Amino acid sequence: MTGYRPLEWYQPTVSFTHATQCERCLGLGHCGGPGTESGCNALTLNPLDPDFHEHLASTAGLDLDVTVARPQPAFYLPSLVPQVDGNKICQGLNRPWVAITLGEWMKRNGRKRKSSGSMSERLSLHPGTRVILLLFANDPLLETWFWPSRHQILEDLKTWKPDVVVAPDFSVWHRDPWMERQWAIVRSLRLYGLLQEHGIAAIPHVFWGDKDQFEQWVRWLQANRVQWISMDLQCQRGPHWSRFLLELAEFRKALDDSAPRLLVNGTLNERTIRAILEIWPETSFTSNVTALAYHRREAVRSRDGSIKRIEKPGADPGELMRRRIMQIEATLERRQMLPWANPVTVGWSPGFPPEDVDRSARP
Fold first, then answer.
1. Which of 30-34, 41-45, 227-231, 234-238 has the weakest average pLDDT?
2. Which one of 55, 162, 301, 363 has the lowest number of neighbouring Cβ atoms within 10 Å?
């Protein structure tokens, strides 16, 4: 590539207040160097924590390679997977796939673990609609309920009968200590492995905070040829968005022919869609903008980049939702998302996969 320069990564600054625990660290310098702001501190997971070794034992250490992807039946998602929240307006929604976050599911169903009906039935969706459960929720729900009870919850989750489950999005921020970020990444990947062990089709959730973790994911995906990965871009905005696009392009380049298909969760507008598809053409999108629509609310970006939600009183919520879905699908079609550059997808119409698609496992 003409004029290509290697990506310059964030370098943590020296902070001697974080140097007291570095001699006992098992990360062995992965944080970016002892005595930096990426070093451990007393408020996060650290070697002086009395439960430190118990935490590490629960994930069999901090290496991604401990989790090995298992073969699972291939599946193909449409360009847009609308998100629903159990509201009666979405009942009977005629789309091949929909998604719901763990947070929204718990709002509607509480913390009941077992279910007498499938998620599709409980959501009163159109017959044949497939459901993706996104294990996305606020940190307290994931940290204090889901993670401590993960083994029993995943056993009971089989009674919900989701068609696909996306691994959790534990919070990762590049200025968090390396150990805290690695702990979040590894727990999400271990849960992906547990989902597969329980016979549930799963998608690993990919996120990183520095060059070391970026390269860990590249190596893992080269060794584990999964069909799909997921990324949550809800918080990627402003200057972080430009930086993320650079890293995403580098990620795709590093993966080369081992690059899987990508499921993106986040705010959808034409600029966002265009930028991602130029880097990763085999992308499907999911977003809660459809839920905002049928609640008679719409997200509008101001000139300063902030998001404002405007009310649309008097409008039919069902019509608003359908219109919003069609707008996004039309945008995806304009961006030449449909059909993908793949012979098995020729003839797709917006939002609907072909019935004769090749569902054999990805080589």
1. 30-34
2. 363
